[in-house]
Amino acid sequence: MKTVKIDALRPTQMTHGLREIRQKTAAYKSLSGHALDMAIAEKPVPVVYGPGGTPFAIDHHHVATALWRADIQAVPIVLVEDLSSLTPGEFWLILENHRWTYPYDVHGRRVSFTMMPRHIWDLADDEYRSLAASVRDAGGYEKTTVPLEEFRWADLFRNTLPCPSSDAEFASLVKKAVKLAKSAVAMGLPGYVGPAK
């Protein structure tokens, strides 16, 4: 399997959830040898080559960042598309048309593609992105193959719930967010499961 150095991997989103990354980093650090190699191989990063052949991650930003924090230098990749011959403008337009990029900041505001961080670990922490992952893990909604699904859930929570300022507030917010995720307000979002029967 082809690998790419993590410090060469460019992000296609502005934010990630540090709580989720800390959990993944701890999990990788607890492994060694063959078990670590297998865990890394299970989550290859889907990549699109951009202008000049630069590798851009279009998913698994949390995985790549957690591996970097666990002192892993390279990550296995799956090449999705080679767009290396395009101009930057053409490149980002195609990524957006395929929903392979999410140019929105921690406040849900759209930003210029030129503001995209240079490294995969430079993304801003978005508590609502972590909340979306925790709600999914708690059964609030199901994982799907819809691109950027977690961001759509994060935006629902961002527009409805207060931002937590502590671990205790975050834990309390997960319970409220699970109820919200199963309510009619969330109907239409990817992975919606509806109220418990």
Tags for this model:
single chain; Helicase, Ruva Protein, domain 3; Conserved hypothetical protein from pyrococcus furiosus pfu- 392566-001, ParB domain; alpha/beta; 197 residues; 39% helix; 4-stranded mixed sheet
Can you offer a commentary on this structure?
- The protein has 197 residues and is α/β, with parallel strands linked by helices.
- It has 2 domains: 3-125, Conserved hypothetical protein from pyrococcus furiosus pfu- 392566-001, ParB domain (Alpha-Beta Complex); 127-185, Ubiquitin-associated (UBA) domain (Helicase, Ruva Protein, domain 3).
- The protein has helices spanning 18-29, 33-41, 61-69, 88-97, 127-137, 149-158, 167-181; strands at residues 3-5, 15-16, 45-49, 55-57, 74-82, 124-125.
- Strands 1-5-3-4 form a 4-stranded mixed β-sheet. Strands 2-6 form a two-stranded parallel sheet.
- A hairpin with a 5-residue loop joins β3 and β4 (55-57).
- The relative contact order is 0.16.
